[in-house]
TrEMBL record:
The keyword Membrane applies. The chain crosses the membrane at residues 22-45. This is AB hydrolase-1 domain-containing protein. Pfam families: Abhydrolase_1. Belongs to the AB hydrolase superfamily. Epoxide hydrolase family. Keywords: Hydrolase, Membrane, Transmembrane, Transmembrane helix. It comes from Scyliorhinus torazame (Cloudy catshark). Residues 98-198 form the AB hydrolase-1 domain. PANTHER family: EPOXIDE HYDROLASE. GO terms for molecular function: epoxide hydrolase activity.
Length: 217
């Protein structure tokens, strides 16, 4: 026999859960609204004080000191003969050790890997490269120069220009997708692969996101 108290308890529990969710999202949106209001007031105050300089872009005369920190590694450049592009990278660890190549995401550059450069330099030749269009690497004009095929070929050319036949490849975000595709096209050049924050390319097809990537190609 069903306990007659079950239905009221279930209804009460569901009501409490809904109230809890309602309170949670009310707090979230209230906080976001207050933050946006304060930011708007701050922006308005800057516009009143200095309308001409509020939206003026200031060009740095010198790089931030952290970008020139020699303890992170050595700043180097490599020019690819086929494409003619020059790539900037920061390397740590002794030459001759196994290569660990780090590919950053969007809209980042080599500095995203500062901790990994320090962590793995005792066992690897760690190289954090600026992908084409980022940081101090060349940025060719034209969307056709940023197709996946071009980016994958860049990785191959960089590995070979550094004097290696294979590497431990680590990619994050957009760099993760490039790493996935590189491993598919050139599996013989991969000893190990680590992907952060990027699913396998076949997952993009299932969610229709591959059409979005096609825009970049």
């Amino acid at each position: 026999m069903v306990n007659p108290l079950c239905d009221p308890l279930v209804l009460t529990t569901r009501l409490l859960v809904k109230c809890k969710l309602l309170l949670f999202w009310a707090l979230v949106y209230t906080f976001c609204g207050l933050t946006a209001w304060l930011a708007s007031l701050k922006l308005l105050w800057h516009i009143i004080r200095n309308p001409a300089g509020t939206f003026q872009r200031v060009v740095r005369q010198t790089s931030p000191p952290c970008l020139n920190d020699t303890s992170l590694g050595t700043h180097c450049y490599v020019r690819i003969k086929e494409s003619g592009l020059r790539f900037h990278y920061v390397a740590a660890g002794e030459r001759g050790r196994p290569l660990m190549l780090l590919l950053h995401g969007f809209p980042e550059f080599w500095y995203s890997w500062r901790y990994q450069l320090q962590e793995f330099k005792s066992d690897f030749r760690v190289v954090a490269v600026d992908l084409r269009g980022y940081g101090e690497s060349d940025a060719p004009i034209g969307r056709e120069n940023y197709q996946l095929d071009c980016l994958i070929t860049d990785v191959k050319d960089i590995v070979e220009s550094l004097g290696y036949k294979k590497c431990v490849l680590i990619g994050h975000d957009w760099g993760g997708l490039i790493a996935w595709c590189f491993a598919i096209y050139y599996p013989e050049m991969i000893s190990k692969i680590v992907i952060l924050n990027c699913p396998h390319p076949t997952i993009f097809c299932g969610f229709g996101a591959w059409q979005i990537l096609a825009v970049y190609n």
